[in-house]
Amino acid sequence: MPELPEVETVARSIAPLVGRRIVAAEFRGLRVLRGGDPDAMAASLQGRRIDSIRRYGKFILVSLRGGGYLTIHLGMTGKLLLGGPSGKHTHAILTLDRGGVLLYDDSRQFGRLQYSTEFPPRIEKLGPEPLEVPFETFADALVRRKTRIKALLLNQDFLRGIGNIYADEALFRAGIHPLAMASRIRGERARCLHRAIAEVLREAIAAGGSSISDYVDAQGRKGFFQFSHRVYQRTGEPCVTCGTAIRRVLVAQRSSHFCPRCQKR
DNA sequence: ATCGGTACCTGCACGC
DNA sequence: TGCGTGCAGGTACCGA
């Protein structure tokens, strides 16, 4: 499901858990623990109070009182759900005080849950937040890279949180072809892309994200930004600006949707 | 140090 | 009805 706007929506929807205590933790699917020991992890979480819940790109970081972190990444199909019945793809169940339950569901198991005593190094290494990065930082990083702009936007060490949907949507709004070389985007075009990224992410957050297949927030609510997609998964449909059929190409092994007339290399 | 390609999973839509 | 194929919001890891 989840890119920055979806993860932001999920993080906000579990914000009421701040201040609550984890009474018990149970882990089923071990794949999402990535080799972590389920019993040790349960023991580390049990009895701990949640101090804060923060999003870093597509990661959710749950800080525990007295030190320690639970890092959650939703992968492609991960869901956090407040209450509700557990199912075939439920991999973790956190029981909270005052009767709360938080489930982690993930059919493809590309997501992961990790406990660490230190701030996670992977999060440390991420690029800046796309909604906060100053233009100069963004533009400087662009010219250094020897890759296609679409591949670069998907690279979490460049900017954190952009995925396939919002990369395509931002490039369309900026009028830039997904195969354009990053280092050749300068001046006004770079400024335009910087603005388009922030704009599309803000609009998507306001819409509660994009519900492509079954994405929902922790309260089971769907987003509705999918109705505002201009190119993503609109192959063959007319461009909203010029009417030309939207095309699909592979860039870095990912489907990329663009208007061949509006978006220049 | 960076880059592109592949592996990791399950489920669904499609054509035959 | 069933089977094979291709596709899907993700990252990690490998070799070049």
In short:
With 265 residues, this protein is of the alpha+beta class. It is 26% helix and 22% strand.
List its traits.
4-stranded antiparallel sheet; 26% helix; alpha+beta; single chain; elongated; 265 residues; DNA-binding
Structure commentary:
The chain has helices at about 5-15, 40-45, 120-125, 135-145, 150-155, 165-175, 185-205; strands at about 20-25, 50-55, 60-65, 70-75, 80, 90-95, 100-105, 110-115, 245-250, 255-260. With about 260 residues, the chain is of the alpha+beta class. The strands form 3 sheets. The chain has a 4-stranded antiparallel β-sheet with strand order 1-6-7-5. Strands 2-3-4-8 form a 4-stranded antiparallel β-sheet, with helices on one face. It has a two-stranded antiparallel sheet with strand order 9-10. The radius of gyration is 20 Å and the shape is elongated.
Summing up helix and strand content along with how strands pair, one would put the structural category as alpha+beta
Beta-strand residue fraction: 15-25%
Biggest pleated-sheet summary:
4 strands, antiparallel
What is the β-strand count?
Answer: 10
Order of helices and strands: HEHEEEEEEEHHHHHEE
Helix content: 25-40%
Q: What best-fitting shape do the alpha-carbon axes yield?
A: elongated
Low-confidence parts, pLDDT < 50 over ≥5 residues? none
Number of helices: 7
Topology:
Elements (H helix, E strand, L loop, with lengths): L3 H10 L8 E6 L10 H8 L4 E7 L2 E6 L4 E5 L4 E5 L7 E7 L4 E6 L5 E5 L4 H4 L10 H10 L4 H6 L9 H11 L12 H20 L40 E5 L2 E5 L7
Antiparallel strand pairs: 1-6, 2-3, 3-4, 4-8, 5-7, 6-7, 9-10
Helix pairs in contact: 1-7, 4-7, 6-7
The protein binds a DNA duplex (16 and 16 nucleotides) through helix 6.
